[in-house]
Q: What sequence folds into this?
């Protein structure tokens, strides 16, 4: 058989290496442990000579040596430990041990002993008996078979207790072909017969019936392929799992022994194929075992990497939480400087992905802040052009008062405001401090509440909220524009003019304020008690009280020329806010103050404002369209239906315009319904 030939070659090679290794030899193995116990055995070392323990290396043979010898390399064999013990003459040995208990009753392994001049490979077979099992050799006279001693190697002394074998078991019966993995324990476990012999008696009977099937009469070293004579009346169980695995085992009666010897070549070939398949399966099993070990190591490495990544992600989350906790609130839009992205340090290759995550989070945060700022600075929605009032038409002169009245001329001299000297500009108001984060959040909440009140037509509550916001953040232009819209809805012309003047002084958009004036004609009506202002002999623009005008404020010395250079005649002036100099009770005090100041210096710019009239008559202004009258209820209901149709079709702008007309000119019920629709599409 190929396996047997390989073993012969391996033994010859071992003997050759042993001869080259200064006569170092390896003896038999002596077992000191039983089944289900950690392995404890000693291998004799022969002719050690002057070698030391550090010069002798003992280990389990490699997988290629096992494959060449046809021996299966079990996974448990990797746990065997070999330790050379040198104690002088007769005490040199190799101690074999294991940590885990041995579960298999049969162990077959190859040991490699290396020294400086060569190495020795030796095969050992160990049969582990159950705890308490003590076999005893019976006299040879009972069986008629004398065991043949093929070697002078001493066999371990028999144990004190003996196993009594029934003489009937020593009668030969059927034959059994031993496989490489068979041993007495396994064979006796598969035997079934009419007798009541226990397993220990069957093992002892098998050994006594077949002494020639064991190497050096060692019951632990059964020869592979040996034909064993079974006790009379016992046969292997065919239905057992072991019988299925050993499909090549053939049991024949004694009368057919001659037929077995003359078996055809086909059976021998089948046996070889079975052996080859068994070896291939053993190699595949070993490869699969090694792959499993590799996969387990890789899985452990991946788990360690995942744990490291989890720690890194946790650290990043903690850093992000700390940065968000200490992040300052966004400054108000009026005093906010343009956002500049902080330079990001160049990350290293090992931390590149970490900095990328942080950068993305910072960019997302900046985007949210910019969107919120744009929402706060969003201008008041513009109305359609057809409703704008053309305030830039040329104004007509008002008729002059009678020249016989002396009082206006005197009052004119006293009412003329002194021009501020360039060397003493008025102090500019200090910049508004930045709001705290909590104040900014509270102001934003109040603005949202004001939007809700405006949508439902509750302008009084909206005015109160917006005034609170301006009290906390006076520089907030968005709140000023919303308050202007609310004052226009309430018809508070005086409050609108005062707030418009403050808004323009704070940098507000004059076009947006003009559009609000045009949308609400009530803001353009002149007070009934106002009288035409007195003028001087010449039509000089200096007759107007420039110091109290909401539009033409006296600029400082540094920006005087630039401020008047941008002035045009299309500017919408709030002429209703001009006061009659004759009715002003503070004129004597101002006249006295004017006398105390130095004489006026000529201005450093030229202006053609003197061509304008002294007083503008708004009752003669021509508007693009007359003030609309109240819309009939039927027309307002039709407008509501058109607005609903526009909402259904997706034209929200047209729907918003129609609903605003209904809010301005409908009855209370229609106004409430229009406000609800406006709130839905807001």
A:
């Amino acid at each position: 058989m190929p396996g047997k030939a390989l073993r012969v070659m391996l033994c010859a090679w071992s003997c050759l290496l042993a001869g080259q290794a200064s006569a170092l030899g390896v003896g038999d193995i002596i077992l000191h442990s039983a089944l289900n116990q950690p392995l404890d055995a000693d291998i004799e070392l022969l002719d050690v000579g002057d070698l030391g323990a550090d010069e002798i290396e003992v280990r389990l043979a490699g997988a290629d040596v096992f494959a060449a010898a046809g021996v299966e390399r079990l996974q448990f064999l990797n746990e065997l430990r070999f330790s050379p013990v040198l104690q002088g003459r007769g005490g040199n040995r190799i101690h074999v041990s294991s940590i885990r208990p041995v579960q298999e009753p049969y162990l077959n392994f190859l040991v490699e002993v290396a020294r400086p001049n060569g190495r020795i490979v030796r095969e050992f077979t160990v049969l582990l008996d159950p705890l308490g099992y003590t076999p005893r050799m019976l006299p040879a006279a009972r069986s008629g078979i004398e065991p043949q001693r093929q070697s002078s190697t001493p066999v371990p002394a028999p144990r004190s207790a003996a196993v009594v074998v029934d003489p009937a078991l020593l009668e030969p019966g059927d034959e059994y072909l031993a496989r490489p993995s068979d041993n007495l324990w396994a064979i006796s476990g598969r035997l079934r017969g009419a007798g009541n012999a226990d397993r220990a008696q069957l093992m002892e009977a098998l050994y006594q019936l077949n002494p020639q099937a064991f190497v050096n009469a060692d019951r632990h070293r059964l020869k592979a392929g040996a034909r064993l004579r079974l006790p009379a009346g016992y046969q292997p169980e065919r239905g057992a799992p072991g019988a299925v695995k050993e499909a090549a085992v053939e049991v024949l009666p004694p009368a057919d022994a001659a037929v077995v010897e003359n078996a055809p070549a086909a059976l021998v070939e089948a046996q070889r194929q079975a052996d080859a398949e068994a070896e291939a399966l053993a190699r595949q099993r070993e490869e699969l075992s090694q792959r499993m070990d590799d996969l387990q190591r890789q899985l452990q490495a991946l788990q360690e990497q995942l744990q490291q990544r989890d720690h890194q992600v946790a650290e990043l989350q903690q850093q992000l939480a700390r940065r968000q906790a200490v992040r300052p609130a966004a400054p108000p839009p009026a005093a906010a400087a343009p956002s500049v992205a902080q330079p990001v340090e160049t990350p290293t290759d090992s931390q590149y992905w970490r900095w990328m995550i942080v950068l993305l989070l910072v960019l997302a945060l900046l985007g949210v802040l910019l969107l919120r700022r744009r929402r706060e600075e969003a201008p008041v929605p513009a109305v359609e052009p057809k409703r704008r009032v053309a305030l830039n038409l040329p104004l007509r002169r008002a008729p002059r008062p009678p020249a016989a009245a002396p009082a206006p001329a005197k009052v004119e001299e006293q009412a003329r405001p002194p021009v501020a000297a360039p060397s003493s500009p008025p102090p500019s108001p200090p910049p508004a401090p930045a709001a705290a984060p909590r104040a900014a959040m509270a102001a934003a909440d109040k603005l949202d509440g004001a939007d809700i009140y405006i949508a439902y037509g509750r302008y009084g509550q909206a005015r109160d909220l917006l005034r609170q916001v301006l009290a906390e953040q006076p520089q907030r232009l968005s709140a000023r524009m919303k308050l202007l819209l609310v004052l226009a809805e309430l018809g508070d012309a005086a409050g609108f003019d005062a707030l418009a003047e403050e808004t323009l002084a704070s940098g507000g958009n004059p076009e947006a304020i003009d559009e609000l004036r045009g949308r609400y004609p009530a803001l353009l009506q002149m007070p009934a008690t106002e009288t035409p202002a007195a003028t001087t002999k010449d039509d000089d623009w200096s007759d107007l009280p420039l110091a109290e005008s909401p539009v033409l404020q006296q600029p400082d010395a540094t920006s005087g020329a630039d401020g008047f250079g941008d002035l045009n005649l299309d500017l919408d002036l709030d002429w209703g806010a001009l006061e009659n100099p004759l009715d002003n009770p503070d004129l004597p005090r101002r006249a006295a103050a004017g006398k105390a100041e130095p004489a006026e210096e000529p201005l450093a710019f030229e202006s053609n404002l003197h061509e304008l009239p002294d007083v503008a008559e708004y009752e003669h202004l021509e508007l693009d369209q007359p003030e609309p009258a109240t819309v009939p209820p039927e027309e307002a209901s039709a407008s509501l239906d058109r607005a609903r149709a526009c909402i259904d079709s997706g034209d929200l702008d047209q729907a918003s315009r129609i609903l605003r007309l209904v809010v301005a000119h409908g009855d209370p019920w229609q106004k409430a319904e229009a406000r609800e629709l406006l709130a839905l599409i807001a």
